[in-house]
Amino acid sequence: MRAIGIILAGGNNRRMKELSQRRAIGAMPVAGSYRSIDFALSNMSNSHIQKVGVLTQYNARSLNEHLSSSKWWDFGRKQGGLFVFTPAVTADNSSWYRGTADAIYQNLSFLKNSHEPYVVITSGDCIYKMDYNKVLEYHIEKKADVTVVCKDMPDGTNVERYGTLRMNEESRIEEFEEKPIVARSSTISCGIYVIRRRLLIEMIERCAMEDRYDFVKDILIRYKNQKRIFGYKMKDYWRNIATVEDYFATNMDFLKPEIRSYFFKQYPDIYSKVDDLPPAKYNVGAKVSNSLISSGCIVNGTVEDSVIFKKTFIGNNCYIKNSIILNDVYIGDNTHIENCIVESRDTIRANSYYKGEDGIRIVIEKNERYIL
Amino acid sequence: MIKKEMIAMLLAGGQGSRLGVLTSKVAKPAVSFGGKYRIIDFPLSNCINSGVDTVGVLTQYQPLRLNTHIGIGIPWDLDRNIGGVTVLPPYEKSENSEWYTGTANAIYQNIDYMDSFNPEYVLILSGDHIYKMDYEVMLDFHKQNGSECTIAVMPVPMEEAKRFGIMITDENKRITDFEEKPEHPRSNLASMGIYIFNWKTLKEALIAKADQPNLDFGKHVIPYCHENGAPMFAYEFNGYWKDVGTLSSYWEANMELIDIVPEFNLYEEYWKIYTKSDILPPQYIAPEGVIERSIIGEGTEVFGEIYNSVIGCGVTIGKGTVIRDSIIMNNTVIGDGCELNKAIVAENVVVGDHVKLGVGEEVPNDTAPHIYNSGLVTIGEKSVIPAGVSVGKNSVVFGVTSAQDYPEGSLAGGKTLIKAGDEQ
């Protein structure tokens, strides 16, 4: 195999509001049955990358639980495998990861002890399907030092929370700005990079010596004129879930037939941890339309235009509209939920009323649940 | 030296011919059940939930689906360094090579497998029952009574007792006598086909009766142990247990799952049923979809209406289609505007648009009325049914069929249309 993988899954984002209090974004449930990191992991596995390191830091409990076995993504191999790196105190370092480059620096032995010539770096909070080999071939063909996967956003998209870039006619990146106030280009970086392993080690070490910690700012932007940094345009579906609105819209995208067909029906598949839940059950009074329902759910009420995650119980005479109900939620009878995201493991009392008036409302209830 | 207290031997070689075309290409234990499961998932899950981590699965009839389903046992946590699941097909020997000729003969041919774990007890199971049972409790019962052979029994209504093997016990549950399908039963304790033997006792019996043709547990091994005075006890089980040996009992057992609180509850946390899941995505219900009193597997897309049915994984139900009281297995596609009533549609079937299954009066099946009855329509796996045709009750279709096979666009009730594979 020609490359190893690194997935940056340490981040938190304030714009995810209460949703990120419980978990790193990499562990955010997506599309009913998945976690957002499943997409990066499945892409690695489907691209025949056998050795993958996941760098985690922020509230990794949920993520670690999800990654407790590497077999779901086919990484339980003698050659390679899945490695999870959390910050650790060592003889010469006792800091948290101070940035993406620092996170890689603190685990540099993972890179040094590998023999594969290339590294694919990606993040755990993007929803997409990609064969990294195609980027790798492009990288080799362009004789690039670093290849950045980028995407043209439709005109009028607010790109100020992405890295934006501009390429010349050869696709070499001439301009690269991180989260610009006024963007001069609608081409954004997807946070997927291909780089030669030895060059990465060299640059990360130099960065550390200069007390610089960020991969984008201190490597890509700083070296953009000195190194051959190329852009690889991706045209397929790509979304990152950095805000509540993005998260909501990404999930709702899966109600569209073309998106479902792209992710669920076309080869290769996206893998996830298997939960051994029974099939979903619809009792008398269930009325479901234009919705995704996951395994282990029991539905007694009405659900419209919503994504219901695993093991959710919906009581009699409930009305759920345009909402996302995360894993293992119990919703009592006669409850109205509209334009909401209900946090996982919540228990919603009977006769409750929740409605997002302007925008999406996040519902977190910590009522006691009595289980017989 | 490796030592396992109890190992299980799971008999999964039978054809289950009373399931008709459903078992034309797969062994009965590999037939789908309850949307996403296969019948063998129930005994295998019981094993791991009871702490039995060494299971030999005896296969013979059409084992491909069964073998790929079991694999190395990952879904049931039976991928172990020592023990785990082992598939045991019949094999050639230097002399006297033979198929498995009976239930006990299959076990006899695998004495070496059992010996390699040096077990104290051997649990004999069959792969065609739907139930949840803690075999550890049964083992405790076996030990407490100083039993050498314990048979799990279930009380059945006296009038039905003549369909079963019946155990007659004394007040301490010690078996004093037994009768196979008796005309006038003396007890209502029916054998469930689940036995715990002391390995020493079983091995001795198997070797002593080795030359018996079609060596069978009920007919030969248990009578042999009884004649030799081995202490034998009946372990009474009062939970849900269902033999899904016939199409009508298979259909009923599936339908029982959709009750509000079913007698057999798949949603219990502490006794999970495990299976190999190939399909992960959630199911999609379209704006025009209607579902009531049904269970539906992962990745299924519903554009029509479903009432009182059990639908597998990766199924597509077309627009305007109405499905009632039916079982539809994995990866089947049902076209638009169809009507299905009491249909059992196996895996990977393609049903064209505007097809009607289960129409008209009930007429007894012309070739096998003992299999195809109760008003069910049965469609075998990988069948194709062309658009616009109708099929009557008690009929069966198997194979790739075209419009010419349906005179005047219909297959009358009680007809058999088989165009592929081994004839049933």
How would you portray this structure in words?
The complex is a heterodimer of chains A (372) and B (424). Helix content of chain A is 21%, strand content 28%. Chain A is of the alpha/beta class and 372 residues long. In chain A, the strands form 7 sheets. In chain A, strands 5-4-1-6-11-8-12 form a 7-stranded mixed β-sheet, sandwiched between helices. A 5-stranded parallel β-sheet of chain A has the order 14-17-20-23-26, with no helix packed on it. A 5-stranded parallel β-sheet of chain A has the order 15-18-21-24-27, with no helix packed on it. In chain A, a hairpin with a 3-residue loop joins strand 2 (29-30) and strand 3 (34-35). Chain A is globular, with a radius of gyration of 22 Å. With 424 residues, chain B is an alpha/beta fold. Chain B contains 8 helices and 33 strands. In chain B, strands 1, 4, 5, 6, 8, 9, 10, 11 and 12 form a 9-stranded mixed β-sheet that branches. In chain B, strands 15-18-21-24-27-30-32 form a 7-stranded parallel β-sheet, with no helix packed on it.
| Helix-strand category of chain A | alpha/beta
Percentage of residues in strands of chain A: 25-35%
Assembly type of the chains comes to heterodimer
**Basic shape of chain B:** globular
Ends of chain A: how far apart? 52 Å
Largest sheet geometry of chain B: 9 strands, mixed
What's the end-to-end separation of chain B, in Å?
A: 48 Å
Overall pLDDT metric of chain A:
92
Tally of helical segments of chain B: 8
Brief account:
Chain A has 372 residues and is an alpha/beta fold. Chain A has helices spanning 37-46, 61-66, 100-106, 108-112, 132-141, 197-209, 215-221, 244-253, 257-265; strands at residues 3-8, 29-30, 34-35, 51-55, 81-85, 118-123, 126-128, 146-152, 163-167, 173-178, 187-196, 229-233, 238-240, 280-282, 287-289, 291-293, 298-299, 302-304, 307-308, 313-314, 319-321, 324-325, 330-331, 336-338, 340-342, 347-348, 353-355, 361-363. In chain A, helix 3 crosses helix 6.
